[in-house]
Amino acid sequence: MTPTSDATADDTTDDTSRFPRQFGRTHRFSLGVPRGFTVSPDGTRVLFVRSTSGTDRISRLWLYEEGQERLLADPLGCGHDDGTGAAVPPEELARRERARETSSGLVSYATDAQVRLAAFALDGELWVVRTDGSAPRRIGTAGPVVDPRPSPDGTLIAYVSGGALRIVTTEGTHDRVLAAPDGDRVTYGLSDHVSAESIGRSRGHWWSPRSDALLVARVDTSMVRRRYISDPAHPERPAREMAYPAAGTANADVSLHLVRVSGERLAVRLPRVADADHPEAVWTDRSFEYVVSAAWDGHGPLVSVQTRDQRSVYVLAVDPGTGGTRVLSRAQDRAWVALRPGTPLRLPSGALVVPARPGGDTQGLEFGGLTTPPGLQVREVVGAVGDRVFFTASEEPTEVHVWSYGAAPGGGPVRVSEAPGVHTAAVGGPTVVLDSRTPDGQTVTVLRDGTPVGRIAVLAETPLVVPRPAELSLGKRELRSRLYLPSWHRPGDGPLPVLLSPYAGHGMQVVLKVRAWWVAVAQWFAEQGFAVLVTDGRGTPGRGEAWEKSVHGDRLTAVLDDQIDALHAAVARCPALDPSRVAVRGWSFSGYLAAAAVLRHPEIFHAAVAGAATADRRLYDTHWEERFLGHPDVLPENYERNSLLPEAAGLTRPLMLVHGLADDNVSVAHMLRFSAALLAAGRSHTVLPLSGAGHLVTQEAAGNLLLLERDFLRKSLGAEHGGPAARTPGRTPKTRTPLKGKPV
Fold this sequence. Notes:
The protein is an alpha+beta fold. The protein has eleven helices and 44 strands. It has an eight-stranded mixed beta sheet.
């Protein structure tokens, strides 16, 4: 059954009713936001990608220099004029899907070492532009171009076409193959699905500093099971084939090769299995199946590999002359070794930056004999200038700041960012580009020697609703939460139905001191007559190893318990919450959580909207799922306990299932199998398929989906009229329903 709604985003002229359309047309407020910063080694030039407004879908390449922004490359001036991506190679479309790229045009680029030359692909064509003010030039190639990367000296460009790694001069001459596929399902120079989606390694080739060779990934997917994704709205179109290694099945065979510009080639001899000190468990697989990271610095190639069971990670130095490897660092863990973005990193001195536990279960860094202090939870290494490392870290989980730490003894960490919020950075020479998201919005500040010298404009639209969350710390575990109430709600207006809108899954937080799209969406639902509660519980980042790994073996129980504890604590503190009318909504992991909530605790949760819910854990990929649940053939009970399908007969509450039919991350098979199980058990439910939509729903569909969710939840909770919001939209009183106790 497909729901319909006669509501539109233009019912009235007030800001609240216009928000869903704004949400869709701005691609969740991502358009007009600068990103992809590259700072030159001398700190004088900053390159970045951004569109021209908060509704412009076409990204362009810009240069910030001497306090001014200058447009370097405009896709419209290069013949790209429709924004549909119809001519983009399928490998590039897959790369964009893995990166959750929502714009078109010039969405990525790469530069030479001095950041004077940038290369990019438009509709499969290779373009270069220099920062000296000259116009972009198209370079003829042997075929459609994917992931072009200039050599450090700026004389050559490596790119992938038809699965082969090729090079061409920046003058457009001597285009030739360096590594050609030696099988129908072999590529050189690209990442595989698991590495890009779940590990975070999107690249497949890396230049040597001398521009005379490349470190290249060979990916063989011949042993990987195939999935076929079709568009039911266009049955005349053939299905798209993709290699997808589901939990318990074969991974792609990823190997590394040293390929010289002159044509010689040498295989890197990666270790096959971990040493005897590898932690054992019920399921143990010591084979190194994952190439986690790769780079080539002044000391040579640097590679890290991980075992199939994810309990060992080795950092390896590669001899570029022989292909042999030497172990520089080992990390083991009885659950899984957490991968810290930006590590390993080798400094000019040779010091290796790797994850460490400096005290307790703090997630920190070690380098040059130094460690970050206990209690400072490191999130990511963003770069280094000389032997000074820049990274992001939290002292309080709702904030993320940029820090620097010099390798000299006694230097200690220094916090670069100041305002409460979430900050990250790009660095080069004396320059730090500080990208800051705070409760007031987003800013990008250029610092030189620690002093602000300019701003890079953020052109995103401001949400039409004004978030006003109450900051809470709830229950015995001090669960970081945010409670959103309607701006029009006053003491005595009567209790509000409660809507839980978390993510609550591994690797992502939503309870942060920022004005992000999900914060605006939470406030919009509040304006529709709900009290919206958002909580980060166990399994989310920022609170140490034990907190993050408490979901090992069971992805639902602790997470759901924390949502229930937060709900009970919030109800006890705020008389405006009605515990007899509680709903939950979510997408991806939180969609899975929403469905589990009404299945397992119908006495607490009275309705749910589950978007892209991972209902059958066996269908998700090896690296992500086996991290938590192990191998399904060895630990089938873990997958049975975490699957929603066996619990389908227990559904007694209204449930809406939403899924994009083109989703190649969480397959629509999750929804279809779950719906079939519900139907077989005679359980009524609502199904909303989104034609042509992938895992990230954008544009008009995203806004209209909010309206459909609202209508379903109102009807399910007996709150069709939305309370006082329907009578006095947008009214902002001076008084608010008070919370009992002191918010944190």
